[in-house]
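Appendix B. Chain record.
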Amino acid sequence: MSAARPLTTLRTIAVITALPLLLTACGYGAESTDDDKQTGVAADAKKLSVDEVKIGYFPNLTHATALVGVQEGLLQKELGGTTIKASTFNAGPSEIEALNAGSIDIGWIGPSPAINGYTKSEGKNLRIISGSASGGVKLVVNPDKIKSLDDVKGKKIATPQLGNTQDVAFLNWIAEKGWKVDAESGGGDVSVVRTDNKITPDAFKAGSVDGAWVPEPTASKLVAEGGKVLLDEADLWPDKKFVITNIIVSQSFLKEHPDVVEAVLRGSVKTNEWINANPEDAKASANAALKKESGKALPAEVIDPAWESITFLDDPLAATLNTEAEHAVKAGLLEEPNLKGIYDLAPLNKVLKADGEDEVDDAGLGAE
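Structure tokens predicted for this chain:
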């Protein structure tokens, strides 16, 4: 495997790592919470090569594969007597730290922290082993102030965090419009206002921002406050698909416990099959899981449109991960990374083949 060069940014990743209280769209930048949740298993169930597998994910709709897989017991079923210990995170960097420390073995995570974690470790800490979700990101605006895409110029638009996946996507869109913005400060032809997703709806309602490029369910929360969807990011991508959530594993765990990794992937594939075959039941299950995590379920006016915009799939859409990295380089937030080896899709393709499904491609970024 080729060694990856360390990732450097215009203080972006350093800030994210040093200040884990910064929040982002997919939770990147907040402190993690370990709920120490364990699922029950039958006393006579056969264990795999470990007694317990520690998984991590965010209490977000874009991580519904994990939410539903745990909620419905679909992951546990494939693991037999090996129990699941699940921890939830609000931050990509803190989940990567947990993976590096051995606090989790496998995690659901967005592309930016996966790229950062891989490159900062010079390709030694993780592998992406599957996709999980695509889409679910929108530009929502105040229709009284912004009536067309050209009207975005001169306005204040929120993104979740400097250098996060949605921030990079918006900066790239701005550049393609021919407008100029200083990536670090957010100043220029458009004012890019980095705002915690938890307070973005209030900022929008108060008029502090004129719109936001954000993931679900924040986008639908803004619509519920009178906003209008001006652009769905999916429309900017080939086949309207781009990675929003991956599954990662520590390289040591992958090497030492391939049977457990394969079982988790079988559970993930079975969960996505169930989600796609039973969308209403799956949506209710995800909302029930969110209520357990946060104490409050999402209202129908928010979860219904949010759920519609997310595609659950096993393909990691590797080419789009590479494109997202290129966008970050173009924005000046990232030095050219070497992502060769970030994927190991052999276990997933084994599972897909056994399930009668087509194998997926690593876009030339697989481990040798």
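Further analysis of this model is presented in Appendix C.
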